[in-house]
Design a protein that fits this description.
The chain has 16 helices and ten strands. A four-stranded antiparallel sheet has the order 3-8-10-9. The longest helix is centred in the last third of the chain and has 24 residues. The protein is globular, with a radius of gyration of 23 Å. Helices cover 49% and strands 20% of the residues. It is of the alpha+beta class and 393 residues long. Bound molecules: (R)-mevalonate (MEV). (R)-mevalonate binds next to helix 11 and helix 15. The site of (R)-mevalonate (MEV) has 9 residues, from helix 11 and helix 15.
Length: 393
């Protein structure tokens, strides 16, 4: 089975849903049983090794969004979220997007940025000299950095470039900081550990080259060398006609020009992206931090998505974010349910995952805006609430 359109998926029994997912993604009996038992994934022993002071584990609902077609491939998208109506909304949006071929998404690269701060503030007169010293030693710095990861080096990845930049101190009279940035191709990994390791490893060499001491040695979560873009065309009639399309563009315009609305609008976008991040064991705080910083990249906080009409009056959406994700290492490999979710996605590369996360964010934003300009969002939210009340009474 390769079609992600599964009519009335929400009406199926737990067993039927699992059978569908199992067929779609070739899950083993063990994997299906793991999902069936809904134990939440990790046992206490495991949790105790992941964090300090562990006392238990904590689980959240895992659901599947249907109808996704991204770059011509169908996906059933696992989403971990506590909020009702999000998964139904994403599935509905993906169904409408499918009319015009689904989502088109692309990834710019997988370069992680490591930052090394020189402790002493420097004056304008010193900048060139220090830069020259660092850049003259860049081959040596890169070699040292790459000696910290055989895996990346073997793959032809790893630290590729050294950049220097000055950051003005708030105390202007007192100079600026020189920041050395390591550009590291981290391949299929999120890369936080390897980036931090490399930064710490090269700091003594930078000290030797410059005669200065170093202070911070840490990755930047503002992953602008890992930009992802997702686009889709939503059929005018399926959206609800010209008026709804126009109203959705006005809703976007409102978000793009008012920070109070933009934060809520972007929160809705991230409902999609972060649910997939949670399901696949990503660092959701890193993703959120980068996304909201990027929302301000023009100088003010704006909508993360853009919406316009095409020549036929269809609604065209675009979502662009810096997205650092990984499918090797970390929780992705450790957490049994994250592992199963990654398998459900039938990924061929980390780029696929980034494209899915961006597409889900766009779908979510579409669904939220459509609901907001028509029936309001409470109707969808209250559907499950009513079911819960009924089962409590
Ligand atoms: C709720 O989680 C998300 C929304 O508030 C997003 C939005 O207002 O666009 C519905």
């Amino acid at each position: 089975m390769t079609d992600s359109s599964i009519p009335k998926f929400f009406e199926k029994s737990h067993e039927e849903k699992l059978n569908i997912i199992s067929n779609f993604s070739d899950l083993t009996d063990d994997e299906v049983n793991h999902l069936k038992n809904a134990t939440g994934g990790i046992d206490f022993e495991h949790a105790n090794k992941m964090i300090e002071n562990a006392i238990s584990t904590f689980s959240l609902p895992l659901g599947i969004a249907t109808n996704f077609k991204i770059n011509n491939k169908d996906y059933l998208v696992p989403m971990v979220i506590e909020e009702p109506s999000v998964i139904a909304a994403a599935s509905k949006a993906a169904k409408i997007a499918k009319i015009h071929g689904g989502f088109t998404a692309s990834v710019e690269g997988n370069v992680s940025i490591g930052q090394i701060q020189l402790r002493e503030k420097i004056g304008l007169n010193e900048i060139l000299d220090i830069k020259e010293k660092i850049l003259a030693g860049s081959k040596e710095i890169l070699e040292l950095a790459n000696s910290k990861s055989n895996t990346l080096t073997k793959l032809g990845k790893g630290a590729k470039e050294i950049l220097c930049k000055e950051v003005l101190s708030s105390d202007h009279g007192n100079g600026r900081y020189m920041i050395v940035e390591l550009m590291i191709d981290v391949g299929d990994a999120m890369g936080a550990n390897v980036t931090n390791t490399m930064c710490e490893a090269v700091a003594p060499l930078i000290e030797k080259l410059t005669g200065k001491t170093t202070l911070l040695r840490i990755l930047s979560n503002y992953s602008t060398k890992r930009m992802v873009t997702a686009m889709a065309t939503f059929d005018k009639d399926a959206v609800g006609g010209e008026q709804v399309v126009n109203d959705m563009i006005s809703a976007f315009d409102f978000a793009d020009n008012d920070i109070y609305r933009a934060v809520t609008h972007n929160k809705g976008v991230m409902n999609g992206t972060i649910s997939v991040a949670n399901a696949t064991g990503q660092d959701s705080r890193a993703i959120e931090a980068a996304a909201h910083a990027y929302a301000s990249h023009t100088g003010r906080y704006r909508s993360l998505t853009t919406w316009a009409k095409d020549d036929s009056g269809n609604l065209v959406g675009k979502f662009e974010i810096p997205l650092s994700v990984g499918i090797v290492g970390g929780v992705t490999n450790d957490h049994p349910v994250a592992k199963i979710c990654t398998k459900i996605l039938n990924l061929t590369s980390v780029q696929d995952l980034a494209c899915i996360m961006a597409s889900t964010g766009l779908a979510q934003n579409f669904a939220a805006m459509r609901a907001l300009v028509t029936e309001g969002i409470q109707k969808g939210h209250m559907k499950l609430h009513a079911r819960k009340q009924a089962s409590n009474s």
